[in-house]
Amino acid sequence: MLDHNTVARFEALDTPFYYYDLELLQKTLASCKVASDKYGFHVHYAFKANFNERVLKAIQQIGFGADCVSGNEVKKAIEIGFDPGKVVFAGVGKSDREIIEGLENDIYCFNVESVQELGIINDLAAKRGKTARVAIRINPNVDAHTHHYITTGLEENKFGVNQWELKTCVEELRKSSNLQLIGIHFHIGSQITNLDIFKSLCVKANELSQWFEEHGFQLQILNVGGGFGVDYYNPDESPVNDFESYFEIFNKFLERKPNQEVHFELGRALVAQCGNLISRILYVKNGLKKNFLILDAGMTELMRPALYQAYHKIQNLSADKNAETVKYDVVGPICESTDWLGKEVELPLSKRGDLVVLRTAGAYGQVMASGYNLRDIVRSEYSS
Ligand SMILES: Cc1ncc(COP(=O)(O)O)c(C=O)c1O
Ligand SMILES: N[C@@H](CCCC[NH3+])C(=O)O
């Protein structure tokens, strides 16, 4: 919570930094756990959203699995204490070294994204006398209606196996004695706020799971990925997602055979709201056309606005709330014109030294930070 005491604590700290509200994280995780348990659903946390160790530890302790997209994420999951039997590994470009990492750790499943990858995993498993469990990631050609940079389930996207290649996939699986097909996997995109889109995914998943049954494969799992979006505009009104409604959609529309498990890979919905980027105003520049607040944080700390024109709510934590308001372009110190964090943001009259917060920054924030311009990599602070 960004209450008076917390802000007073920030005053004494060097900026910028990410501030994690661990109580809110706990509340979010508990709410997701209760809602998923209600239907016997399994949640794997998408590591790519945030791999801060305290965040990961909380997620591991609640009992979720890990959805990884690199060998290092697999390694990290095991180090943090995630059960290898709950680790899945996706990604269009798994290197041999990364596949071996997964095999040696006996992870639960490789989410395979091409026919060629099936052959490579089979060979690497055979050399080690192992059988790899695999799920085929299928490109369902379902439009997620989100920003086109974070859409993944359309035919023009690089992700997954296209439906017209499934026959070849099945032939490859039949001749691969070191692979065991355990399921099918989908992920149509991120920041999806219209739940009807997940209904369309269910319809497609039902059709494709039926197709595999007809071709003689009994699927143990249906993995429907992640993508559940958060409210960037009203973080205080919606600090915790409505997980109940989300899971209910799948319970209602996804056809499950007896004993078939349903897996989810949530990232953003679990960690976005608990993270905030705290920064200070370095300079106030008043121009003829624009007023700029130049912060000590920029695209190197939070890349989402520069990369996807993403919105993050910006608040001045130091200014008098009743002061007259001014419209500012909030920018960073980096030598790039795309280095902005908010445009035409209405804020109370602001001055050098004021603390500023960028809300809903817990997902795809700190993990995408860089050292461009030889900047320090942004650090973390915690509520407790
Ligand atoms: C395969 C896969 N699973 C899960 C996720 C997590 O997505 P989100 O953070 O939107 O829940 C992603 C990221 O978009 C992904 O690519
Ligand atoms: N990084 C993106 C989400 C990509 C999800 C990974 N497929 C974002 O900030 O919204």
How would you summarize what this structure contains?
The active site is at residue 335. The protein has 384 residues and is of the alpha/beta class. The protein is 30% helix and 23% strand.
Structure description:
- The chain folds into two domains: 4-17 and 274-382, Lyase, Ornithine Decarboxylase, Chain A, domain 1; 22-271, TIM Barrel (Alpha-Beta Barrel), CATH 3.20.20.
- Helix content is 30%, strand content 23%.
- It contains eleven helices and 17 strands.
- The protein has helices spanning 4-11, 22-38, 53-62, 71-80, 96-104, 115-127, 166-174, 196-214, 243-253, 268-271, 304-308, and strands at residues 17-20, 42-46, 65-68, 87-89, 109-112, 132-139, 161-162, 179-185, 221-223, 261-266, 275-286, 291-295, 314-316, 325-331, 340-348, 355-358, 379-382.
- Strands 1, 11, 12, 13, 14, 15, 16 and 17 form an eight-stranded mixed β-sheet that branches.
- Helix 2 runs parallel beside helix 3 (53-62), helix 4 (71-80) runs parallel beside helix 5 (96-104) and helix 8 runs parallel beside helix 9.
- The longest helix has 19 residues, at 196-214.
- The radius of gyration is 22 Å and the shape is elongated.
- The structure holds pyridoxal-5'-phosphate (PLP) and lysine (LYS).
- Pyridoxal-5'-phosphate is lined by residues 46, 49, 67, 90, 152, 187, 190, 225-228, 265-269, 363.
- Pyridoxal-5'-phosphate (PLP) is lined by residues 46, 49, 67, 90, 152, 187, 190, 225-228, 265-269, 363.
